[in-house]
Amino acid sequence: MELRNLRAFATVARTLSVTRAARELHYAQSSVSEQILALERDLGVDLLDRSQRQVRLTAPGTVLAGYAERVFALLDEARTAVGQPVAELAVGAMETIGVHLLPPVLSDYHARHPGTRLRVVQHNRNRLYDAVAGGELDLCVTYGPAPTDPGLRTRVLAEEPLVVIVAPGHPLAGRGRAPLAELAGLAFLSTGRGCSFRQMFDATFAVEPVAELSSLGALGACVAAGMGCALLPSASVRAQAGRGEIAVVACADTFLRTDIMMSWRDRSTSAALPGFREVLSEHFARLPAG
Question: Are residues 104 and 230 in contact, defined by beta-carbon separation less than 8 angstroms?
Fold first, then answer.
């Protein structure tokens, strides 16, 4: 059984037209008919019902059409399997980084490596570390602290200033700076325990927040409404501050900061990973200081 004859038959079976099959295969109609006749002689059965003007499959023809479809699907799969593999890179990030800092990196990397398929997910820091360690992700970008897993490597990309945000009508809104002792006396809102942003808050202020909110969006909205203040990375509040919804207050006597870091498996075999680390490092080296 010759593949060219089988393909001619499969095309006729799909289109139910010798004319359309010949056009699709770039053959003469007589050539398509001859190939199907050759296949029928080879199999010893009639594949087409030629008693009517319209093309119809016989019972053996219907059976063979199903097999032919699977044969050519397997051939396509084989070509893909032995051809040039598509490089893939799975990247994870905390939501704030993924929304505010990572998009230019992804765009630049895609422009430099258009043949690499990117998959990007957002999770909390501990989930990202586990996903990298378990091989679900090639790399993640998080706020500190670094993972404790000895199988992961980590590099600090940049320092992100932490700022206090207040409502536009707050007494500190027009000052822009205040000492840490004064900031510590404010009524703070925060995320729940276990969240990395709550850990930043607890490491900075020895006070309990007056309310806990589950998302940064809700946190920012409540600050804008005058419910309290919040301590957050500066990148996460630039857009809201730019719209005039909140005011940013920096600490005047202490540099409040958190590290932005990338983490990957020590023995990663991803061919795309070194190039992505390079682009990531370049972009974060250009981040504004505050």
Answer: no
